[in-house]
Amino acid sequence: MNTGLKTWTKRVVVFLVTAAMAIALIPFTGLKTVTKAADDPEYPVPATSKQLIDNEDGTYTLKLSVTGSAKTETENPKVNVVFIMDRSGSMQNQQAYTGQSGYRVFQYGRYGHVGSEYPQLYYRNNNGTYSAVGNNDNHATVYTRSGTAGNYTYTQYNGTRYNEEDNMRRDWIAIAAASDLADNLLSYNTAANPDIVEMAFVSFNDMATNGNNGNWTTSASTAQTVIRGYTGQNNTGTNWEDALIHAKALADNKADDA
After folding, report:
1. How far apart are CA 26 and CA 157, in angstroms?
2. pTM beyond cutoff 0.90
3. Mean of the per-residue pLDDT values for the chain?
4. Do residues 205 and 237 lie in contact, with contact meaning Cβ atoms separated by under 8 Å?
């Protein structure tokens, strides 16, 4: 993408999400704000001068000066991300995780995810009090709680929600990791720069399928809806090659549109 004085290539990153890839632990540092001196005719190269003065005692005084104006501009490098999710039958494997508790992504889950913690979520009653979200509650608006008894503060929570499971499955683990990563990356989008990160989705078992109708999105809620649906399917194969072909096609089409 060429924008005159500011030039960058919008990179494409592909995450192949399987049980073997703990993508929640991937350090993603490609998105950072860069501040640099601007090349602007209104701000020409600073003028410099030097002067050597004879002090008439065998010594000299050297004077150097630099005058001019300068400004800085901020660039926000952009990136396209393709998630590839394994939906083969093996992703339903639960035996390897028997007795291993964890947090499964759930639309109306009881828990949020803040930092490394999974705090209990609360909903607001009609009388202004708050109650803990239960397993069968379908409250869309929920809150985290901080402070001490008698002095609690409730803050609306808009992130991914979870339920705790005693025996995890491969696909649940992959979905939770992908959800965390999607929330993290899409948080770089702002009102001023709404498309710093754009995402597309591919899933595969016997064959690959584009998620979200093959459309790219900057919406965290859209990403979460797509990712939550990527559970394993019984008696299906693992055609990851077809998934990579789909991902490349999405990336190539996006590059053509850029």
Report:
1. 24
2. no
3. 82
4. yes
